[in-house]
Design brief:
Number of helices: 3
Radius of gyration: 18 Å
Oligomer: single chain
Largest sheet: 5 strands, mixed
Helix content: 10-25%
Structural class: alpha/beta
C-alpha cells in the first residue's frame, strides 16, 4: 500500500491544491484551469449495444517514438502495445503506478463488452493526445484532429483517459 500525501496536520492534499502549490512555489502565476460553460456532450442517438467506441489516451505507445510527441496521433488498435511509455508524463508517481495497462487502457474490458453485446464494436484505431499545457493547442489542433479521426472511424463514443 502506498501512502497518500498529507499536509502537516495529516489531512489529505488534493491533486489540484498540490499542483497549484507546486507551480506557485516555482514562481509561476496561478494556473487557469480549463472550463467551459457550454459542454458539447449529448445523449446517445442509438442504443449502447449499437455504438462504436474509441479510446483516447495521454499515454504514449512504448517504443514507437524516441522523443516526446507534441501532436495528437492515431494508432491501429490491433497493434496496441502491451506497455505504454508514461515516465515523461506528470502524474503522482509516489501514490500510484502504471504497471497495470488495464487501469488506464481498458482494451480487454472493452473487447469483452463488445463480445457480450454491451457495446456495438471497438473503433479500429486508438488516439493519443499529448499532455500539453496549452489550452489553445488542445482546442485548435489536437481536439479537432482526434474528432476528425473518430468521425472517419464512425465512432459514437470516445472514452477519454488522461494519465
Amino acid at each position: 500500500m502506498v501512502a497518500q500525501r498529507t499536509d502537516a496536520k495529516g489531512a489529505p492534499i488534493e491533486y489540484m491544491a498540490r499542483t497549484r502549490n507546486f507551480y506557485g512555489a516555482q514562481g509561476f502565476a496561478p494556473y487557469a484551469w480549463a472550463h467551459h460553460e457550454d459542454i458539447p456532450w449529448q445523449p446517445l442517438a442509438k442504443p449502447l449495444a449499437e455504438c462504436r467506441v474509441a479510446i483516447v489516451t495521454t499515454a504514449v505507445p512504448d517504443g514507437n517514438v524516441a522523443k516526446p510527441i507534441r501532436t495528437a496521433l492515431s494508432w491501429d488498435l490491433a497493434a496496441a502495445p502491451a506497455h505504454f511509455r508514461t515516465d515523461e508524463l506528470s502524474w503522482d508517481k509516489v501514490t500510484t503506478h502504471t504497471d497495470d495497462r488495464a487501469a488506464y487502457f481498458p482494451l480487454e474490458t472493452l473487447s469483452a463488452l463488445a463480445d457480450a453485446g454491451v457495446v456495438g464494436s471497438l473503433a479500429p484505431r486508438f488516439h493519443f493526445v499529448p499532455t500539453e499545457y496549452s489550452q489553445r493547442n488542445t482546442i485548435e489542433h489536437d481536439a479537432p484532429q482526434v474528432v476528425g479521426a473518430c468521425q472517419a472511424d464512425a465512432v459514437d463514443i470516445a472514452i477519454l483517459i488522461p494519465l
